[in-house]
Amino acid sequence: MSGQALKHVDSHSAIHEAALNEARELNDIMSKLLRSNQKDKAMEVALVAVEHWETRTLRHADAEEEGLYKELVEESPELRDDILSLTRDHDMMRFLVKEVKEMLEKDGFIKEVLEKFHTLVHIDAFHNIEEERILPHY
């Protein structure tokens, strides 16, 4: 059974917006550090950003998949394709975070790391819109 906050559009939206705003702020900080050639500090922020994605967004995704999504499909089988798409979004975000971690280990902070963090934000923003679109049906 999923938590009550996940079941209500307003509280669920607030969870999404907070995490996404934090991710955008981290990206802005990394961009500024990269422009000023402060790669060591950018690396530190990148590690914080990885932790953010793992503990905020992806942990939230795990909770959705383990509870909310199953309940949605059980109660509204016509949402199955939408839920599959949302789960695919989560998989793409997991894949990108894994790639970022590997790049940071291998190459340190490079421009491509920041590009992947921007991609994560774009995927998550679209995902949130789509998820919030189907929640009122629940």
Supply database-style keywords.
mainly alpha, 5 helices, elongated, 138 residues
Write the layout of secondary structure elements.
Layout: H1 4-7, H2 9-35, H3 39-75, H4 80-107, H5 111-134
Helix pairs in contact: 2-3, 2-5, 3-4, 4-5
By DSSP, the count of extended strands is 0
Low-confidence blocks of residues: none
Overall number of domains: 1
Specify the overall morphology: elongated
Overall mean pLDDT stands at 92
- How much of the sequence lies in strands comes to under 5%
The radius of gyration computed from the alpha-carbon positions, rounded to a whole number of angstroms, is: 16 Å
Order of helices and strands, N to C?
A: HHHHH
The helix-and-strand class reads: mainly alpha
End-to-end separation: 14 Å
The helix tally amounts to: 5
Largest sheet: number of strands, sense, barrel closure = none
Helix content: over 70%
